[in-house]
């Protein structure tokens, strides 16, 4: 069962300059005039998978720390120069899966105001999936990037409800993006970060907005966003066979929405993974009652029912074999007993015949 369209990964918007416009960032990285010293590519990881060429030095000792907010401007292209996208003053959190791994590592090694070119191989960029239709699978990409500024991480407890909602949904959408690419571990990390913003904080929601009244509709939206995150996180956890963790995520959903069909369906998947077919069937039957025309539920319910029947047949055959092993032993004992009786009877008959012969011989002798 796929995630809702509202929850589905959204394609990041692109900002392409018009043909007659001149890109300041492109001009900055262009080198029409030959310099005395050409910058050299630095191998940041020692494997050739992440190369960096500094175009402009930044302020010394201003590298960002993990989870700090970084403002970046960049232009992305393929290794052959094909333009992909351009973004100005994009805000990300360092080390929080907001960008591809190679870019995330490189930003952490930049100073504020620094401009550089990055050449990133597929495994640290868009991998074997690519970014259809613009980036093909297994493509090396080039970023011309500037680190514009760095700010401290936001404390969720100091944000308003609307700010928390916006940040939480941004993390959720990024989790959906990773999930759609099959990167379930990174998706789970994003979903957990989303819950940091969408979950109730220690001081309570009302304490954050003493001067303004929070409408019930806003609180309901926040709850629904939190439920969507838990539901999607469970889907990623199931993919990784983290069944206990998935069950905890689904229990959070079902406590608030006992008839949530997706949660019931995924809970059945968890029980199936743990080989508890009866519990899985129970979840699916409830989901079928709530949504009787759901083809995914009906298909899975039919499959589980067949597995249960097959399991019962297997158990009967196993029991039959277990008890059947004792029958040859009994038959062997019966055969041994019959054989002993025959031997004993033959011996007795022979002894009786010898006795009669002796009596007859005695009578003839003294007749």
Automatic annotation (TrEMBL):
<dbReference type="GO" id="GO:0016020">
    <property type="term" value="C:membrane"/>
</dbReference>
<protein>
    <recommendedName>
        <fullName>peptidylprolyl isomerase</fullName>
        <ecNumber>5.2.1.8</ecNumber>
    </recommendedName>
</protein>
<dbReference type="GO" id="GO:0012505">
    <property type="term" value="C:endomembrane system"/>
</dbReference>
<dbReference type="Pfam" id="PF13181">
    <property type="entry name" value="TPR_8"/>
</dbReference>
<feature type="domain" description="PPIase FKBP-type">
    <location>
        <begin position="67"/>
        <end position="151"/>
    </location>
</feature>
<dbReference type="GO" id="GO:0006457">
    <property type="term" value="P:protein folding"/>
</dbReference>
<keyword id="KW-0413">Isomerase</keyword>
<keyword id="KW-0802">TPR repeat</keyword>
<feature type="transmembrane region" description="Helical">
    <location>
        <begin position="341"/>
        <end position="362"/>
    </location>
</feature>
<dbReference type="InterPro" id="IPR019734">
    <property type="entry name" value="TPR_rpt"/>
</dbReference>
<dbReference type="GO" id="GO:0005829">
    <property type="term" value="C:cytosol"/>
</dbReference>
<keyword id="KW-1133">Transmembrane helix</keyword>
<keyword id="KW-0472">Membrane</keyword>
<dbReference type="GO" id="GO:0003755">
    <property type="term" value="F:peptidyl-prolyl cis-trans isomerase activity"/>
</dbReference>
<keyword id="KW-0677">Repeat</keyword>
<dbReference type="GO" id="GO:0005740">
    <property type="term" value="C:mitochondrial envelope"/>
</dbReference>
<keyword id="KW-0812">Transmembrane</keyword>
<keyword id="KW-0697">Rotamase</keyword>
<dbReference type="Pfam" id="PF00254">
    <property type="entry name" value="FKBP_C"/>
</dbReference>
<dbReference type="GO" id="GO:0043066">
    <property type="term" value="P:negative regulation of apoptotic process"/>
</dbReference>
<dbReference type="InterPro" id="IPR046357">
    <property type="entry name" value="PPIase_dom_sf"/>
</dbReference>
<dbReference type="InterPro" id="IPR001179">
    <property type="entry name" value="PPIase_FKBP_dom"/>
</dbReference>
<dbReference type="GO" id="GO:0044183">
    <property type="term" value="F:protein folding chaperone"/>
</dbReference>
<feature type="compositionally biased region" description="Basic and acidic residues">
    <location>
        <begin position="1"/>
        <end position="25"/>
    </location>
</feature>
<dbReference type="InterPro" id="IPR050754">
    <property type="entry name" value="FKBP4/5/8-like"/>
</dbReference>
<feature type="region of interest" description="Disordered">
    <location>
        <begin position="1"/>
        <end position="42"/>
    </location>
</feature>
<dbReference type="InterPro" id="IPR011990">
    <property type="entry name" value="TPR-like_helical_dom_sf"/>
</dbReference>
């Amino acid at each position: 069962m796929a995630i809702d369209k509202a929850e589905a990964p959204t394609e990041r918007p692109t900002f392409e300059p018009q043909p007659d416009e001149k890109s300041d960032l492109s001009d900055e990285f262009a080198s029409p005039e030959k310099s005395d010293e050409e910058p050299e590519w630095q191998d940041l990881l020692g494997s050739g998978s992440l190369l960096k060429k500094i175009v402009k030095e930044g302020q010394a000792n201003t590298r960002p720390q993990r989870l700090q907010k970084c403002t970046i401007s960049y232009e992305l292209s393929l290794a052959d120069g094909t333009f992909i996208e351009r973004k100005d003053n994009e805000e990300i959190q360092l080390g929080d899966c907001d960008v591809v791994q190679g870019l995330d590592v490189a930003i952490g090694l930049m100073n504020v105001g620094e401009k550089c070119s990055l050449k990133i191989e597929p495994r640290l960029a868009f991998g074997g999936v690519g970014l259809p239709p613009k980036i093909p699978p297994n493509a090396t990409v080039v970023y011309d990037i500037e680190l514009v500024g760095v700010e401290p991480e936001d404390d969720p407890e100091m944000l308003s409800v609307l700010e928390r909602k916006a940040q939480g949904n941004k993390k959720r959408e990024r989790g959906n993006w990773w999930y759609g690419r099959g990167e379930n571990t990174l998706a789970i990390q994003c979903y957990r970060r989303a819950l940091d913003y969408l979950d109730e904080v220690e001081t309570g929601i009302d304490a954050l907005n003493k001067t303004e009244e929070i409408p019930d509709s806003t609180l309901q939206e926040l709850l629904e966003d939190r439920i969507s995150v838990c539901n999607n996180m469970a889907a990623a956890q199931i993919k990784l066979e983290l069944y206990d963790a998935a069950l905890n995520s689904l229990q959070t959903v079902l406590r608030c929405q006992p008839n949530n069909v997706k949660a019931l369906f995924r809970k059945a998947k968890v029980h199936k993974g743990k080989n508890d077919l009866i519990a899985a069937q129970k979840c699916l039957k409830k989901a079928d009652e709530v949504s009787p025309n759901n083809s995914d539920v009906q298909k899975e319910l039919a499959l589980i029912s067949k597995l249960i029947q097959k399991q019962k047949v297997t158990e009967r055959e196993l029991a039959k074999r277990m008890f059947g092993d004792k029958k040859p032993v009994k038959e062997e004992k019966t055969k041994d007993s019959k054989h002993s009786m025959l031997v004993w009877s033959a011996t007795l008959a022979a002894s009786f015949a010898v006795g009669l012969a002796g009596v007859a011989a005695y009578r003839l002798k003294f007749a």
